[in-house]
């Protein structure tokens, strides 16, 4: 391609509105947020003073914030693990030609269409932690099925309880990951599979050397999408438990700080969240940009 | 793809039809002096019925006024508070907004966002009809910033009479203090009631804890916690924590996951004998078709007899309210005898005014009206009357943590730290 | 694109190949096939469980609603009250419909344009970024894309300030602008990846100068873009429909979308009416459900031709 403004001027002009709008509404507002996080706006009173990184140090010294990070960690591991596992499993089962594939696919995909405002009440019931006579929700089902040993306190359990909160999140997004994997499976040329079979490859080797490598870009983008949703998880927890200590994650802590008019603290948590997301996303963006350049 | 396209066209048409069906009210116009934008979290249920009743009175008293309902529900008012915080920050306040009366308003007052309503109280004779102890609780440095519309009581034990009788306990006789109550709880447990005391999520735990604090410290000692006159690291608070920990032993293990109504349901199902809850619980018993002093009864939480742990919804007048005159009309309506009656009969709370005719109200409310007139009034912590939003948030978090780890020392240090932070 | 159609045409591999030990193999196949269906149906039941609870609860009068009996079918007909003169199961639906119908209409007027406009702009951006290598195109792309990952709670306060300063109304028109803006990154991403997968020759065919580019976009690229549009429209429609946070901060319940009305219905009262809340949840979810069912099969196809290539 020839260089020169005649070539890249017009495209730049086409994309300029987007760049300007994103510049203001994403980066401008992020900037405003970072500025507040470095001020002492801990109430509605607008006395502003630059305090540097004090709010950040104060936050990391808080047992409560560390606790919310631990919760987020547990949630993220189970959420990503669960969506990837079920997403892959469903796609794998549907890929090989299934009667009524459309029905299964729609059912697995549909929870994505429901907002957490809507599904929160039900999941609150399903994850009710009462056992025995008063059991309801999933614990009741376990009791009916004679699987009493499976009854547990769900998210009320200190420590690993956040894994239970991941259940509705998995319910909602595993279908999307399935769709991604399914499109990945369908994108693998049949000739590749056949060639491998001709060479006498076992089923395992076929997956190990042909299918998994072909799926890895899909897996990566699924991982990124699910991962950043996990770091930002908010409405799910608000819908199921409201903002309480036991299930507190940074995003709900941010909300509590905002309702208490502690603008500086909420801005600080927001910036930390943003940094987390950046740590996850930027290497991915760089990686994809680089691998594309290689292809070209 | 033709099918999806025609579906889109159909959906747009449907959208237009549905949206067209709605009345065209609801747009605020700063230049239209007859409008008043009221920001509340009463969005459905009996609160909505009460609000509608109030609006009806308002429109009768102010025939030209247009009421604009800006309700934001959810998260026990937290959605409303967050949305409000951003509007105030942007200098775009609603004319009047709902807030719990008392310390929850501190932030807004300090930031100069509320107008002093003392003269409004004088002009309308409210200082005479509202009880003195209530006026005292809502006065900050000689000024009053909000008009209470309704009063709730937070130190009420709701008891299932049948469960108590079965265990050989007289349901009409309240235990004298927490220790006596614990004896009864043990008796119930020994009689096979596994979870004699029903409990719910974090704020209901906070409410139970505040009840224990009042019982152990007395009204004066408890009120002193919020003014700095009572030390948080005192023996009394430590004793209250021990009591609270013992009470938790008699509760349902799943309390963290239950909203208040699910906790009350345990009582209704006969699996619990007691539930400490504000008097909005009355609506749950009404809905179940139970009658007072028959299937259920109430008394003040043991050790708090003679104390009225109050919380009130109230309305403010914002600085820079675009429709100030109409907003004052709204405040006048909610403080009038007629407005308070219309609202409270529907919502199931009691009026803030003392010139109430008690017999107009159902059985439970009559007891509350009587106590409100006679008892020492203290401010509820769990419902924003006692501490600022940030402070009660810190306390709530410490109590939630205790619910999981039962570490009394950590709760005490958390409470002390929260108080140090809030009181400087 | 070409790859995918070929893959579908190619017959499945071992279906008609002759091999020794065929019967045993076929038996094993049949067994594993049956197992697969058993598992698929089991998973389907698990996924549908919450919907079952939504439906049965919405048909119970308040007196019969209790977490402990949430799995049970209603114990009376939905037109029969539990208490004399009390509310019935159908009253839940009437209540929900009255509370939500107007806002459902407004949400259509919000979500459809939001999806179409953001998709169109995203297609344009994606085309430019995929096909026109101007200096630092990758960096521009990365900078745009990062916008889709910000936690929106972080920017609400300054955003409300901006809205007030500009004097924008508290209704769906403001939300429309916001959803288009914050939908741009993901639409751009999807279309960029999608166009990267379309063979060069197809587009290089016509000589492109400044004016030619738009013509190419309109006459050659757009008609090829339907699968991409299905993905972005589904995504944008769903997120605009289900969004609560922007709605909470930038609109009010008289002029805002259905998520606000549903939230007020579900959480607005101290004594929650779960039956009405669940009826409302079902009503509010219907449009997105229909979108998924109608466009679902195109969705996979669109994903296939797009994101896989990234």
From TrEMBL, chain A:
All copies of domain ABC transmembrane type-1, residue ranges: 69-286
Keyword Transmembrane among UniProt keywords: yes
InterPro entries according to UniProt: ABC_transporter_permease, MetI-like, MetI-like_sf
UniProt keyword DNA damage present: no
Pfam families attached to this UniProt entry: BPD_transp_1 (PF00528)
Keywords: Cell membrane, Membrane, Transmembrane, Transmembrane helix, Transport
PROSITE patterns associated with the record: ABC_TM1 (PS50928)
Subcellular location: Cell membrane
Membrane topology reported for the UniProt record: Multi-pass membrane protein
Domain of life: Bacteria
Location (main, coarse): membrane
CDD domains: TM_PBP2
UniProt feature coiled coil, ranges: none
Transmembrane segments: 12-36, 72-94, 106-126, 160-185, 206-226, 267-287
Family classification: Belongs to the binding-protein-dependent transport system permease family.
Protein name: Sugar ABC transporter permease
Lineage, uppermost ranks: Bacteria, Bacillati, Actinomycetota, Actinomycetes, Micrococcales
Automatic annotation (TrEMBL), chain B:
Pfam family, one: SBP_bac_1
Span of the signal peptide: 1-19
The UniProt record lists the keyword Transmembrane helix: no
Keyword Transport: yes
Alphabetical list of Gene3D superfamilies matching this protein: Periplasmic binding protein-like II
Keywords (A to Z) from UniProt: Signal, Transport
Domain of life: Bacteria
InterPro entries assigned to the protein according to its UniProt record, in alphabetical order: Bact_solute-bd_prot1, SBP
Subcellular location: Cell envelope
Stated family: Belongs to the bacterial solute-binding protein 1 family.
Protein's job: Part of a binding-protein-dependent transport system for a sugar.
Protein name: Probable sugar-binding periplasmic protein
Organism the protein comes from: Rhodoglobus aureus
Automatic annotation (TrEMBL), chain C:
Residue ranges with Polar residues bias: 1-18
Chief place where the protein resides: membrane
Region annotation Disordered: where it falls in the sequence: 1-25
Claim: Transport is one of the keywords in the record: yes
CDD domains per UniProt: TM_PBP2 (cd06261)
Residue ranges of domain ABC transmembrane type-1 in the record: 104-295
Membrane topology of the entry: Multi-pass membrane protein
Family that this chain belongs to: Belongs to the binding-protein-dependent transport system permease family.
Protein name listed in UniProt: Carbohydrate ABC transporter permease
Source species taxonomy: Bacteria, Bacillati, Actinomycetota, Actinomycetes, Micrococcales
């Amino acid at each position: 391609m020839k260089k020169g403004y005649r070539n890249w001027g017009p495209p730049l002009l086409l994309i300029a509105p987007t760049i300007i709008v994103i510049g203001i509404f994403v980066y401008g507002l992020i900037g405003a947020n970072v500025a507040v996080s470095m001020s002492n706006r801990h109430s509605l009173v607008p006395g502003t003073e630059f305090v540097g990184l004090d709010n950040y140090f104060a936050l990391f010294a808080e047992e409560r914030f560390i606790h919310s990070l631990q919760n987020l960690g547990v949630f993220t591991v189970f959420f990503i693990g669960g969506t990837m596992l079920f997403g892959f499993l469903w796609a794998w089962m549907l890929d090989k030609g299934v009667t009524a594939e459309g029905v299964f696919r729609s059912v697995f995909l549909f929870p994505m269409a429901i907002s957490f405002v809507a599904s929160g009440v039900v999941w609150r019931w399903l994850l009710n932690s009462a056992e025995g006579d008063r059991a309801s929700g999933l614990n009741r089902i376990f009791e009916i099925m004679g699987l009493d040993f499976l009854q547990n306190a769900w998210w009320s359990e200190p420590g690993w309880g956040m894994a239970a909160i991941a259940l509705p999140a998995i319910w909602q997004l595993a279908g999307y990951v399935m769709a991604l994997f399914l499109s990945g499976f369908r994108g693998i040329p049949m000739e590749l599979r056949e060639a491998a079979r001709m060479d006498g490859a076992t089923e395992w080797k076929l997956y190990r050397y042909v299918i998994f490598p072909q799926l890895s870009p899909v897996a990566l983008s699924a991982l990124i999408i699910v991962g950043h949703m996990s770091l930002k998880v908010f409405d799910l927890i608000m819908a199921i438990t409201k903002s309480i200590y036991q299930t507190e994650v940074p995003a709900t802590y941010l909300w509590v700080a905002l309702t208490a008019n502690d603008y500086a603290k909420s801005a600080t948590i927001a910036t930390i969240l943003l940094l987390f997301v950046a740590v996850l996303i930027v290497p991915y963006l760089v990686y994809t940009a680089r691998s594309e350049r290689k292809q070209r | 793809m033709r099918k999806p396209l025609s579906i889109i066209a159909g959906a747009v048409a449907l959208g237009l039809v549905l949206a067209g069906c709605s009345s065209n009210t609801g747009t605020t116009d700063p230049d239209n002096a007859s409008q008043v934008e009221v920001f509340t979290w009463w969005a459905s249920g009996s609160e909505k019925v009460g609000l509608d009743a109030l609006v009806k009175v308002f429109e009768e008293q102010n025939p030209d006024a247009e009421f604009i309902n800006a309700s934001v529900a959810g998260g026990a008012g937290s959605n409303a508070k967050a949305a409000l915080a951003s509007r105030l920050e942007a200098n775009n306040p609603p004319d009047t907004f709902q807030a719990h009366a008392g310390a929850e308003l501190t932030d807004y007052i300090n930031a100069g966002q509320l107008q002093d309503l003392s003269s409004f109280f004088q002009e309308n004779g409210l200082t005479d009809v509202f009880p003195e102890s209530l006026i005292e609780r809502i006065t900050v440095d000689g000024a009053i910033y909000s008009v209470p519309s309704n009063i709730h009581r937070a130190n009420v034990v709701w008891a299932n009479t049948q469960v108590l009788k079965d265990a050989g306990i007289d349901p009409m006789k309240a235990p004298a203090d927490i220790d006596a109550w614990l004896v009864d709880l043990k008796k119930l447990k020994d009689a096979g009631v596994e979870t004699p005391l029903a409990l719910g999520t974090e704020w209901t735990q906070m409410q139970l804890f505040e009840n224990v604090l009042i019982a152990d410290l007395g009204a004066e000692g408890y009120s002193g916690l919020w003014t700095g006159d009572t030390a948080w690291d005192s023996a009394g608070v430590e004793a209250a924590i021990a009591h609270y920990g013992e009470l938790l032993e008699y509760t349902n293990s799943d309390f963290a996951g239950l909203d208040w109504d699910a906790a009350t349901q345990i009582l209704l199902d006969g699996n619990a004998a007691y539930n400490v809850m504000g008097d909005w619980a009355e609506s749950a018993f009404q809905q179940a078709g139970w009658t007072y002093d028959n299937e259920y009864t109430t008394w003040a939480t043991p050790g708090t007899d003679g104390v009225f742990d109050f919380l009130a919804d109230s309305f403010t007048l914002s600085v820079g309210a675009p429709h100030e005159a109409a907003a004052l009309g709204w405040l006048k309506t909610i403080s009038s005898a007629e407005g308070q009656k219309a609202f409270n009969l529907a919502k199931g709370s009691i009026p803030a005014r003392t010139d109430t005719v008690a017999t107009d109200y159902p059985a439970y409310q009559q007891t509350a009206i009587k106590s409100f007139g006679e008892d020492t009034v203290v401010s509820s912590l769990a419902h924003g009357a006692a501490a600022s939003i940030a402070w009660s948030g810190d306390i709530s978090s410490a109590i939630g943590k205790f619910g999981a780890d039962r570490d009394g020392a950590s709760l005490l240090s958390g409470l002390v730290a929260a108080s140090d932070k809030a009181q400087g | 694109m070409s790859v995918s159609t070929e893959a579908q045409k190619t017959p499945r591999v071992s279906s008609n190949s002759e091999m020794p030990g065929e019967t045993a193999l076929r038996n094993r196949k049949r067994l594993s096939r049956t197992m697969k269906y058993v598992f698929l149906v089991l998973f389907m039941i698990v996924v549908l469980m919450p919907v079952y609870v939504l439906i049965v609860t919405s048909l119970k009068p308040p007196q019969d609603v209790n977490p402990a009996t949430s799995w049970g079918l209603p114990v009376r007909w939905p037109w029969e009250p539990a208490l004399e003169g009390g509310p019935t199961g159908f009253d839940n639906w009437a209540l929900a419909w009255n509370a939500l119908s107007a806002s459902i209409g407004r949400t259509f007027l919000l979500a459809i344009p939001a999806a179409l406009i953001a998709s169109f702009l995203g297609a344009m951006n994606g085309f430019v970024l995929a096909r026109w290598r101007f200096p630092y195109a990758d960096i521009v792309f990365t900078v745009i894309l990062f916008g889709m990952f910000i936690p929106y709670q972080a920017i609400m306060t300054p955003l409300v300030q901006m809205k007030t300063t500009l004097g924008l109304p508290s209704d769906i028109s403001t939300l429309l602008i916001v959803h288009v803006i914050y939908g741009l990154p993901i639409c751009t991403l999807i279309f960029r990846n999608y166009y990267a997968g379309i063979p060069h020759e197809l587009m290089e065919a016509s000589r492109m100068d400044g004016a030619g580019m738009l013509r190419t976009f309109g006459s050659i690229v757009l008609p090829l873009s339907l699968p991409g549009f299905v993905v972005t429209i589904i995504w944008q429609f769903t997120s605009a429909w289900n969004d609560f946070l922007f709605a909470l901060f930038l609109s009010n319940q008289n002029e805002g979308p259905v998520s606000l009305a549903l939230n007020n219905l579900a959480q607005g009262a101290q004594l929650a009416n779960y039956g009405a809340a669940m009826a409302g949840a079902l009503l509010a979810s219907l449009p997105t459900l229909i979108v998924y069912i109608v466009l679902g099969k195109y969705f996979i196809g669109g994903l296939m031709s797009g994101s896989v290539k990234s």
